[in-house]
UniProtKB/TrEMBL annotation:
Residues in coiled coil: none
Cellular component GO terms held in the UniProt record: cytosol
Pfam families per UniProt: Nitro_FeMo-Co (PF02579), ParA (PF10609)
Entries under SUPFAM superfamilies matching the protein: Nitrogenase accessory factor-like (SSF53146), P-loop containing nucleoside triphosphate hydrolases (SSF52540)
UniProt protein name: Iron-sulfur cluster carrier protein
Taxonomic source organism: Ilyobacter polytropus (strain ATCC 51220 / DSM 2926 / LMG 16218 / CuHBu1)
Chain ranges of the Dinitrogenase iron-molybdenum cofactor biosynthesis domain: 286-373
Source domain of life: Bacteria
HAMAP family in alphabetical order: Mrp_NBP35 (MF_02040)
């Protein structure tokens, strides 16, 4: 398989044509390796296919393509890129390992070659019409997963797999930011390896602590898909190439996985619109009106909204004025949008670097601006101020 396409434009067109035949695309990602991302990918894909959907699973984890092992097709070699491997009437799989001479050898390609190979898979493999494509991304939030996610076109959403330790919050935050960067809604966070129930004494042991993934979901204002406990059967199922969801019929992990799959179906098929919570900040001095000089405002009124519903409202004191500090300060509070009068281009750039949208031209009562915003009627009316002033000066002219 050649890793370079002779004609990139043609390849982009082929990728688009292939991707257009797939109704829903889901990427499964994790901030770091070994948390059960591939296990979740195979179980989600299997579960979706058992629910009657036509499903493809793309193993894009170039560092350790282990989906074939988990589906009992390790060692399979495909002669050409055209067709995926059919596991059942409803489930097809493609892994880079199908095209490697020896999949036991670690892949030592450099980044661009690996990405070239994945693009070639996306452009050349004919999946046919699918209800779902589940993509197992490489771990992390670096260039490789980013380029792959961007090559997929419109993705329905990401499923972020993490473990229960506190450090999961940091990893999940990166994964949520990653999703925002590629304009992908977050379908939710799965807390995997969440406790172990001893089969002999029924005592629950929280080997990796408990609740980190759920806490992360709450902090990031994204959906929590559920906790999947550690089970010996999950390891066994993975090693035997029979996904857990296929080989088990009961148990806490089985119910939790089923609930994850139902949630994904509801969110992607539109029964439940994916509406992530949004955190919106208004600079204010009196608590009621939008302050146009946000760099020197006393407070920020911060609202968490879901659609048009206001979930929380709080006031946070602004930190002492220091150039460049406010975008970072609001970034750490996970603000999605700042609504204000006006601001300089440098400040806009600093907010954008924090993944915070800037809406300019607002004035008057905060409540009215918020209503307009959640009703989809508030757009940036201003542009960056071009005259000289400090970067966090804000004005409404
Ligand atoms: N809930 C669970 N209970 C028990 N074992 C699990 C569970 N989830 C995953 N495992 C096991 O953990 C190991 C790592 O899982 P997996 O390969 O899915 O992780 P990964 O995040 O995809 O790793 P990598 O980054 O290396 O691709 C596997 O042996 C798998 O069977």
């Amino acid at each position: 398989m050649s890793c370079q396409s002779s004609n990139l434009d043609e390849q982009e067109i082929r990728i688009k044509d292939n991707m257009d035949r797939i109704k829903h695309k889901i990427v499964v990602m994790s901030g770091k390796g070994g948390v059960g991302k591939s296990t979740m990918s195979t179980n989600i894909a299997y579960g979706l296919s058992l629910a009657g959907n036509k499903v493809g699973i793309l193993d894009a984890d170039l560092h350790g393509p282990n989906i074939p092992l988990m589906l009992w097709v390790e060692g399979t070699k495909l002669p050409s890129l055209e067709k995926p491997l059919e596991l059942s009437e409803n489930l097809k799989v493609v892994s880079l390992s199908f095209y490697l001479e020896n999949s036991n050898n670690p892949i030592v390609w450099r980044g661009p070659a690996k990405i070239g190979a994945i693009k070639q898979l996306l452009g050349d493999v004919d999946w046919g019409d699918l209800d779902y494509l589940v993509v197992d991304l490489p771990p992390g939030t670096g260039d490789e997963p980013l380029t792959i996610a961007q090559s997929l076109g419109k993705v329905d959403g990401s499923v972020i797999v993490t473990t229960p330790q506190d450090v999961a919050i940091l990893d999940s935050r990166k994964s949520v930011k990653f999703s925002e960067m590629v304009n992908m809604p977050v379908l939710g966070i799965i807390e995997n390896m969440s406790g172990f129930v001893c089969p002999h004494c029924n005592q629950r042991i929280d080997i990796f602590k408990n609740g980190g993934g759920e806490k992360a979901a709450n902090e990031m204002n994204v959906n929590f898909l559920g906790k999947i406990p550690m089970t010996a059967e999950m390891v066994e199922a993975g090693d035997q190439g029979k996904p857990y969801i296929f080989s088990q019929r009961e148990g806490v992990a089985f119910s939790a996985l089923n609930s994850v799959i139902t949630d994904i179906i509801n969110k992607t098929k539109g029964e439940e619109k994916i509406m992530n919570n949004l955190k919106i900040a208004f600079p204010t001095n009196d608590g009621e009106t939008v302050e146009s000089h946000f760099g020197h405002c006393k407070q920020f009124a911060i609202y968490t909204v879901k659609g048009e519903e206001i979930l929380t409202k709080e006031f946070v004191d602004a930190p002492p004025h220091e150039p460049g500090l406010l975008p970072k300060f609001l970034g750490e509070l996970n603000i999605n949008t700042i609504i204000t009068g006006g601001m300089g281009q440098r400040a806009i750039d600093l907010f954008t670097a924090q993944n915070i949208d800037v809406i300019l031209g607002a004035s008057g009562k905060i409540d009215n601006n918020l209503k307009e915003f959640t009703g989809g009627e508030l757009y940036s009316k201003g542009s960056a101020c071009s005259h000289d002033h400090d970067e966090e000066h804000s004005c409404s002219h």
